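Recall the central idea of this unit: under ordinary conditions, the amino acid sequence of a chain determines the structure it adopts. In this exercise we apply that idea directly, starting from the sequence alone.
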Amino acid sequence: MAKKKKDEEIKVEINRREELNLKEFLLLDNKKQDAKIKETLNTMYDGKIEVSKKHIDKVLDICFDTKDNEVYLPASLKVEKIGSKLVFTFKKANNLVLFILFALAFLLIGGFATYMGIHYLAKLELNQDLDGDGIADLNIDLDDDGICDINCDTNKDKKPDRNIDYRSNRKPIFNILLEDGTIFNPINQDINGDGVCDINCDTNEDGWPDLNIDIDGDGTVDFDRDIDGDGIKDLDIDLNGDGVCDINCDEDKDNVCDSNCTNVNIGDNGGGTSQDGNGDIEFSTASLIVIFDSTDGVSADDIYPDDQVGEGVNTEVPSIGFTVQNTTNKVLYYDLSWTIIENNFTSDNFWYKISSDNDGFNQDWETAPKSDYKFATRVAIAPNTTQTYVVEFTLHGTGEEQNYDQGKRFNGQIHVDLIEE
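Accordingly, the structure predicted from this sequence is:
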């Protein structure tokens, strides 16, 4: 797949504007919310930018966040909460037009054009997209004044040095340059002078902190705490970057998990299901964390074929949703398998389908297994990455009577097993 275009290479209609009624939007179910955002973004971009799940999630974060009111997407598309509306507008001029104007000026007015050329080259350093997802990561200019506001690279090594944000929230959180010249909440703080980072540790040397995050600069670690010094997050893990603990939450900071604890033993199965915690739950440091939305299994019986829609006819089978998170700085591998408790369908018409993001395993509709079955081997997950899975089910209709499938039952569980190397 070709790398996505950078903001300065994309020409869009900057006067375009769309609005969503937040009250009506929040009443929609998850799928309809995603579809509505995607439709709106496609309208704004007019097909010039491919709308991804990451773009949709950023808009959803704004909808449900009581603190943040705006976010920027590719081509400087600003999404902003204003009262009961979600407003989509473009806030920056198209740089392609700027380049054309500069070229004309160069031909017409000589010395002034030289100055303009230097100014334009300086602007090229702004809003750099490092990972090709169409969203600016480095030297972010929020107000189009030609000056970096967030993630400023002062030595041109393609890494942020000043006013560094947290998980792309576009707010200065780390290495903030104050008016007196001092630095507030620096990264890679060695508190006890032992040569080992204690707070805001950049473990992969990309310029952004990964471990022992102090999000408010008070000198206390708030998220992704490593309590045993092995370089792996143990407690207060913020999975989605919203500034709220998601799993292994240590509410009283006594180095013991209090809520949403994961009972994980890598030697046994490499993953575990999230459960509301009690302070006494035992867990080992997890390099691969698996969280199921509600359950790791599905139980389906008395299901009608999906082509037999009518009153009192149940054709729906609940999906299984889960996430797999790699909390380390290296690529990990895992297997996906079924444990079949019961499957007495006569035909091969009970199907399942698997969808995932971030290079996880994907599978089109296949017949559900009759016995234990490993359906994916050695699935790779990149460092510090979360893959989201949805497993769907259907009793496939053949357009004819299927009495042989009536009253049949499927009961199975999915397992995620870390491959130790």
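Helices lie at 22-25, 30-45, 53-64, 95-109, 111-124.
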